[in-house]
Here is the input.
Amino acid sequence: MVHANRTIGAELGGAGVESAGAGLRGQLARHALLPLRLFLGATFLYAGIDKLTDPAFLSPGGAGSLGETLRQVHDAAALPQLVELAQQSPVSFGYAIAAGELAVGLGTLAGLLGRLAAFGGALISLMLWLTVSWATTPYYYGNDLAYLMAWIPLVLAGTPRFSLDAAFANRRKRHGAQLFG
Here is the structure.
């Protein structure tokens, strides 16, 4: 094991495995989730804004509306009960999805309640996979399952770098349990 530590340590700029925070590899490892976080946060923020600014999406029926999409996917959905729930008020449901995507996108980008935001993103992706993209074959052509899997590392790790969560944690460390003051 000593040889392995020396070899790895040399690649990390002289630090052993125990202190893998030094060197380029350590720096990259600490920031590994940042590109995923930026992509998912920006994508969900954009999706929420796109839904709110698309008059066709928020209309109760017609081409491009959520109501029409729900009618089309009802029979092929894994959970048609979710589709039926949304069909009771497609406009309200459209606003709820858009608001959820905005909250998830902003929370993920800002790193505010990062795990909760990622959990919300995973939940939205799961809901869309079980309804809208369930019938996509082969399964890897659908994007909702891939988004669901992409959210899981952020659910597990949170937003430890360049985030409000990290800033608040550092402040609590410096000033004890008090968050403000």
Notes: The radius of gyration is 21 Å. The chain has nine helices and no strands. The CA atoms of residues 126 and 148 lie 6 Å apart.
